[in-house]
């Protein structure tokens, strides 16, 4: 497999433009706790970068430089106190793949965790696994979700007493977090597992508490989502018309009514948008549909923030920063945060293309008493296209990989 290049592709025609998926598509709550990373870090004076990342939809750090900041000096001042952690381990890009160079394609690993039920850093699985790919042109972003039940070979890890072998991909995070590895160790093991599976090395990574989105959405007021199939919440009930987690609802001793997400497009409050994006039971394609709904939520958050002027209004931005809290751990690899933000200032929410694996439907095999997903050849080809920075061409030739969620 060719080594991924990190330079902008050259062309004999200076007027030639890179292929854009737009041509295919047409013109057109949070806990507030500090995430545990396995080591004591200095108090963050102003976690602006982490908060901006959540504000723009957790992965749209790529939008942060569009209008929020005007120069690298301003970015440097705003992000000077940000602490980062090593989330990539040996899965970061080598010098041969570009290393510190941000001029070429950029790939980030985004891991979503739900810590509502457990704060033990050694007992958390990453059920949301997204590869964010930005081509060398730095003017577009792709989101590719990996099914949580995908069977993979998780590499050996002596500290975790893991000799290596087949497992569901979401368990790679838990294996890496064992015996003091904490969340940073979990992310490193996940990154190594995905590199083994796809060949992709990463420029950066982020661990996101999806529960933290609720406060951000509430600060935005709402987000506009379209429900494509009716589903009853597996996690929440209504008590006296108020949404509550199942366990809390039972404690009240009062009558409970199901939370049902009806088909149709509407503005959703934070609790409703988050709950809808977390459902997989009762959906036709289970976790595949959930992946697309989470991608849909991320894009909707970024779009709402920019439409409301939150990206350019300091007062609105400050309100969102306060709402977001410390619900993210970030690693920008060898690059410093200001350079990373400034490099990606040309990507906006409308340039985000959501892609699906396995045609968005099950491709299961049975292992003992559990089912595991197998990536189809076309999905493996898609990840190869990510590695070789020819994803636009791949999508143009295989438009069925584009999610139809709006």
Automatic annotation (TrEMBL):
UniProt entry keywords in alphabetical sequence: Membrane, Transmembrane, Transmembrane helix
Region called Disordered, residue ranges: 1-42
Ranges for domain Cell envelope-related transcriptional attenuator: 125-305
Membrane-crossing segments per the record: 48-70
Transmembrane helix in keyword set: yes
A Pfam family of this chain: LytR_cpsA_psr
Family listed: Belongs to the LytR/CpsA/Psr (LCP) family.
Name of this chain's protein: LytR family transcriptional attenuator
């Amino acid at each position: 497999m060719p080594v991924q290049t990190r330079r902008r592709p050259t062309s004999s025609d200076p007027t030639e433009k890179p292929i854009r998926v737009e041509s295919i598509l047409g013109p057109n709550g949070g806990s507030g706790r500090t995430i545990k990373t396995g080591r004591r870090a200095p108090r963050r004076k102003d976690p602006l970068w982490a908060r901006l990342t959540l504000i723009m939809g957790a992965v749209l750090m790529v939008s942060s430089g569009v209008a929020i900041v005007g120069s690298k000096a301003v970015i440097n001042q705003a992000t000077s106190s940000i602490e980062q952690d090593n989330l990539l381990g040996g899965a970061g890009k080598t010098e041969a793949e570009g290393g510190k160079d941000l001029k070429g394609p950029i790939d980030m690993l985004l891991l979503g965790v739900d810590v509502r039920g457990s704060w033990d850093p050694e007992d958390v699985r990453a059920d949301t696994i997204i590869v964010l790919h930005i081509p060398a042109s730095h003017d577009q972003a792709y989101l590719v979700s990996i099914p949580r039940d995908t069977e993979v070979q998780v590499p050996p890890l002596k500290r975790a007493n893991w000799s290596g072998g087949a497992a569901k991909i979401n368990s790679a995070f838990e294996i890496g977090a064992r015996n003091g590895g904490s969340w940073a160790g979990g992310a490193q093991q996940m990154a190594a597992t995905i590199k083994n599976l796809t060949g992709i090395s990463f420029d950066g990574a982020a661990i996101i508490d999806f529960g933290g989105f609720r406060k951000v959405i509430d600060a935005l007021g709402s987000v506009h989502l379209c429900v494509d199939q009716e589903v009853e919440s597996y996690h929440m009930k209504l008590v006296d018309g108020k949404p509550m987690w199942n366990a809390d609802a039972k404690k009240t001793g009062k009558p409970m009514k199901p939370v049902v997400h009806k088909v149709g497009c509407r503005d959703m409050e934070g609790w409703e948008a988050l709950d809808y994006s977390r459902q997989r039971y009762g959906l036709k394609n289970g976790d595949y549909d959930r992946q697309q709904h989470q991608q849909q939520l991320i894009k909707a958050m970024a779009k709402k923030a920019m439409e409301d002027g939150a990206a350019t209004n300091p007062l609105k931005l400050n309100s969102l920063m306060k709402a977001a809290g410390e619900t993210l751990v970030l690693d920008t690899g060898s690059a410093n945060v200001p350079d990373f933000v400034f490099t990606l200032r040309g990507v906006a929410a409308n340039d985000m293309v959501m892609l699906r694996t396995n045609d968005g439907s099950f491709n299961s095999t049975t292992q003992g008493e559990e089912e595991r997903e197998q990536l189809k050849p076309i999905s493996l080809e898609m990840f190869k296209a990510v590695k070789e920075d020819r994803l636009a061409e791949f999508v143009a030739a295989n438009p069925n990989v584009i999610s139809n969620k709006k």
